Task: structure prediction
Amino acid sequence: MAYKRILTIQDISCVGQCSLTVALPVLSACGVETAILPSSVLSTHTTGFYGYTFRDLSEDMPAIKDHWVKENISFSAVYTGYMGNAKQIDCVLDIFDSTLEEGGLKIVDPAMADHGSLYPGFDREFVQAMKGLCAQADWLLPNLTEACLLTGTEYREEYDRAYIDEILAKLTAIGCKNIVFTGISYTPETTGVVVYENGNYSYYEHEKLPKGSHGTGDIYASAFTGSLMAGKTAFEAAKIAADYAVECIKETLADPDHWYGPKFEPVLYKLIEMLK
Ligand code: PXL
Result:
């Protein structure tokens, strides 16, 4: 298989085990070359830390892209995560247009919300801008809160297959081609991942742990992207990412003092084994 080069665009949270500090090691573990474009630099992530710094790099992003274009650098996939503001999203749309190889994949994790609420600093306008990015996605990786915000659907804690089918139809109407919908629980005791590929629904049920851990969405999206680019089918990639995320949560829950991010490093070898 041809050697794949992926570009991932998201922030650097210097401390917090999320976004680029997760994406880079996880994608590398999947055996794919990983280029990065930091969209902003924060001292920590924004959930649970207070007084964090935020350096917006949206002014630098177009010049970085221009240099790549001049050097004929292109990517097999562009995978985006947390964006700090709508201006960064505009830059990403331009990067899709100018750096993707023919047939290259746009993989979008609309990292902006969880458990029924937006992350700090985001508003309705930002959701609208994110919707524009999601409309381009070959693969969209939302959690339920994000999917509800993108589609104007009421967020529910309990739901059935009809509710999920309605959201999938609305996401498709926005323009999303394929969807991997994480954390979908049809009963209180179970959870799983919906893979909606070319209009075909499949579901991978996996272990539900009593408590999630912050940053697991970034682990999931990175492991899915890496596995897909390593040649797995979308369903296999969704399964590997779910199994790895479960391992990361278990590792994190075993250390109650570790509250701010997933302890993904000690179990990275398990991801590599799953990919063999
Ligand atoms: O894990 C998503 C994420 C990424 N980057 C920053 C965040 C968050 C979630 O809160 O604050 C800066």
